[in-house]
Design goal:
Helices cover 32% and strands 26% of the residues. The chain has 504 residues and is an alpha/beta fold.
Length: 504
């Protein structure tokens, strides 16, 4: 990390970080989208006007504001406006529907809720009304954002260690968990990413994942530290998005394993012709990375691939460095940065450091998650190599990671147990090159019940309000689920062994 980035990394709050960067390079772009551009200076100037508008609506330091918005420049402006005010913001992934959104609004005690209106054919405003959300307002384009005179604003927050962010992760339970972050924990996470990737002001990044994901501030902190821009994609799809990558000269792309696979598939349509001429690095995390995928990307795309390990509770834990050996980049998750301690306890990965969250909304979950020395128990299994690289070998958590998003197996199981034809069910993740994992439902059918098909199961879950990205992509109907001999617990590892090697 260069001296300027290191100095900026000591900022107490995200707003202080943004203001210090704006003072250094006010005219340099930070966010690019289609034919629009926002500079570092404009980010702060416009965010203060939005903050003043929010203040006029009644938003104060500590006010809880939820937002469910797509990856747009306006979303970043609203988020930084809330950071300027010192409000508590709780981002919600736009794919989520009544079940997750209603739970998040209620548990966080949201007093305001920003939505995009009707987006991609779904009316978010109507959903918010059905849920009885308070303070609903549209924040999709520039004209929708609140506006006001910044002279009315109180001083910016000076404390970076107060909880001002509530992110949501399903983990292994049917209800989402509210993860508590501070400005400092998010700055530390973004610094970890920036330090590992060794980028410079000459780079051009890309945000092709939901800005409401924990990766949103993680990536934005990196932009603020190094002073380079990123292209925002409201909807990522290939080959359509390639024009944006090429037009803006993106040098660093990625997001997760699924993104690598998609870029590689496009590259294979024209072997030997650079897919994105300026691209030099793919980087990301969020899902397991097969070693062969690393080698294929390097060999066929002619770019480096650096993969990392993070989670909502600690957005950046380890990261591969572009100058690591090919073996380490292919087979490990990289090394932890300075300030992140990793301890392996009975095979489980445990963490301690500034980038780790403060815990959960539920104090009981917080007590369970941290040991007596303050280490966070990830539920992931792994070991450290002699060189300090982390190798993950499995998960204790019963969670499926599809395209970088955590999916609770139990949530789907609980819903399917309500189907009249289902006697018992186990939901598992199966390896998939493009998605990381696919959702597979293994069902014991009720005696005499009509035949179950994947289509009927998906239709049932849709009617129950399950988010589209959680729907099973495979169904197996069995006479009996494998169980142990004591408590008759379903042996999911047996199911994974049985079905991982077959494709249907």
């Amino acid at each position: 990390m260069n001296d300027t980035a290191h100095a900026l990394g000591t900022s107490r709050t995200l707003w202080e970080l943004a203001a210090r960067r704006a003072a250094l390079t006010p005219d340099r772009p930070v966010l690019l989208q289609d034919d629009r551009s926002l500079s570092f200076g404009e980010l702060c100037e416009r965010a203060e006007r939005v903050a003043a508008g929010l203040y006029g609506m009644g938003v104060r330091p500590g006010t809880v504001v939820a937002w469910q918005l797509p990856t747009r420049i306006e979303t970043a402006l609203l988020s930084f406006a809330l950071a300027r005010l010192g409000a508590v913001q709780t981002p919600v992934i736009p794919l989520h529907r009544e079940r997750e959104v209603g739970f998040a609004l209620h548990r966080a005690g949201a007093e305001f809720f920003a939505v995009p209106g009707t987006w991609r054919g779904f009316d978010h405003t109507a959903m918010a009304r059905r849920l009885g959300a308070r303070g609903v307002f549209r924040a999709y384009d520039g004209e929708d954002l609140p506006d006001g005179d910044p002279s009315v604003l109180p001083p910016p927050p000076a404390d970076g260690t107060s909880v001002r962010w509530i992110y949501w992760t399903s983990g292994t339970t049917s209800d989402p968990k509210g993860v508590l972050h501070t400005d400092r924990s998010l700055i530390a996470g973004g610094s970890c990413l920036a330090h590992a990737l060794r980028l410079s002001e000459r780079d051009v990044g890309s945000i092709a994942f939901p800005y409401a994901h924990i990766g949103g501030p993680d990536y934005t902190v990196m932009l603020l530290l190094y002073g380079f821009p990123a292209v925002m994609f409201e909807r990522f799809a290939l080959p359509e998005a390639l024009e944006g990558y090429r037009r803006h000269g993106v040098t660093v792309a990625g997001g997760s394993t699924a993104f690598y696979s998609m870029f590689l598939a496009e590259q294979r349509k024209q072997p030997g012709v650079p897919l994105i001429p300026t691209l030099r690095l793919l980087a990301g995390g969020g899902a397991p990375k097969p070693p062969e995928l690393y080698h294929s990307v390097v060999r066929e795309m002619g770019v480096q691939l650096a993969h990392g390990y993070g989670m909502t509770e600690a957005p950046m834990i380890t990261m591969g460095r572009p100058d690591d050996s090919a073996t380490n980049l292919a087979t490990t998750e990289g090394r932890p940065p300075e300030g992140m301690e990793i301890r392996i306890v009975d095979g489980e990965v445990r963490l301690r450091g500034e980038a780790v969250c403060q815990g959960y909304l539920d104090p009981a979950r917080t007590a369970e998650a941290f040991d007596e020395e303050g280490f966070f128990a990830t539920g992931d299994l792994g070991h450290l190599t002699d060189s300090g690289h982390l190798v993950l070998t499995g998960r204790l958590k019963d969670v499926i990671i599809r395209k970088g998003e955590n999916i609770s197996a139990r949530e789907i199981e609980d819903l399917l147990h309500g189907h009249h034809a289902v006697r018992d069910v186990a939901v598992i993740g199966l390896p998939d090159e493009e998605c990381g994992e696919r959702v597979c439902a293994v069902v014991e059918r009720q005696p005499g019940a009509p035949e179950l098909t994947l289509g009927t199961v998906v239709s049932y879950l849709r009617a129950e309000g399950l988010s589209v990205h959680k729907l099973p992509e495979r169904l197996e109907v069995v006479d009996a689920l494998p169980r142990n001999d004591t408590l008759r617990k379903v042996l999911k590892h047996k199911l994974r062994e049985r079905y991982s090697g077959t494709v249907k």
